[in-house]
Predict the structure.
Amino acid sequence: MQPRLAIPAIAPGGRVAWLRRTGLPAPLHLAGALARYGHLSPAERFRAAVTALALARLDPDDPRLDALTFGEWLARRGQSPRALAGLWELIGRPTLNLPASEASLALAVRVFQIGLLSDAAAGDIGWATAPLSEVHDAPARRALADAGVDVRLRWRATQVTQEGDGWTVEGEADRVVADAVILAVPHERLAPLLPADALDAPERLTALGRSPIVNLHVVFDRPVTELELAAGVGSPIQWVFDRTRAAGVRSGQYLAVSLSAADREMSLSNDELRSRHLAALAELFPAASGAKVARFLVSREHAATFRAGPGVAAQRPGARTRLPGLALAGAFTDTGWPATMEGAVRSGQAAAEEVRDTLRRPLPAVAVAT
Ligand SMILES: Cc1cc2nc3c(=O)[nH]c(=O)nc-3n(C[C@H](O)[C@H](O)[C@H](O)COP(=O)(O)OP(=O)(O)OC[C@H]3O[C@@H](n4cnc5c(N)ncnc54)[C@H](O)[C@@H]3O)c2cc1C
């Protein structure tokens, strides 16, 4: 975790402006950074500060906010295209996985209020310095094993049926009989598993849509930047992270470029992504233009998250289904959060509480299909 939020925002030519918080309480913690933010004119900085204060006063649970896009609202507040691209999109696009012009204002308000406007430390950025299997998988497995949970990996659920007071989850090889079931698969995988009548409006799951993320993994033969992370401004590079140490790369530098709301990038070939983004990296980090590329890999997640557009709040199901003992979990459920790890965890807690309340017993044996 950063001790204090510090984002170097880099424009082509290597021009850096820092978004750094001070020790002041929110929202004053960002006032100094905004006042000095060199990618905007002084008038744009002033208007951005006034807009941030207006954003802090909105209620993310107000259904009217979910009818508007974040972009429409920012335009009404006089935000210029430059302020949009150079400031608001830096935070909005990766957290909502949509550009402001398509994202629900309600979810944008939630992100900016929680991350930047209510608690000064909430926006400090953390990133994994170890492989994610060590960060998420191993500790979770240890905790589950300590709690006596039987975890079955690569066990694909094919059907969920209610039998008497209990439930049966069919797998490809065997079946699990349980008092209750929490279905925690992505929304696009849910429909075939859901028993009939489980949801009032199962067609809403399709309406949640999808938004892609593309990651580019570039290993240079030499270090090209000293920054551990950076955001691109006026560049096709959105965010870039130095993964050299985390990945155990011994020579050169490994940069991971993260591209959110990557509809356009999904349609580009690996060669097109390579030429476009290597040139863009060289514009941000001039040392990259003299470096050789030892490896270049692309990973595409076509359904990385649901589409957090206007009207999405009404499409998200709750943890409770119409069938007692069957609950839903997943970042797509109605957590009020965009599709994030924290939203997923919150949804799991809501589902566990739902099942416990339904059975009116202490924690039952639960089959979790994940
Ligand atoms: C490239 C990428 C980068 C991201 N970066 C961030 C980030 O930096 N910060 C952040 O907070 N969030 C990030 N997210 C979003 C975050 O990962 C998701 O919101 C979160 O993982 C959703 O959790 P979930 O439990 O709802 O679903 P998932 O994590 O998708 O888990 C669902 C599980 O169900 C399993 N499954 C599917 N079908 C079946 C079946 N029939 N039977 C059994 N199991 C099944 C799947 O294999 C999967 O393991 C990122 C997502 C992607 C794709």
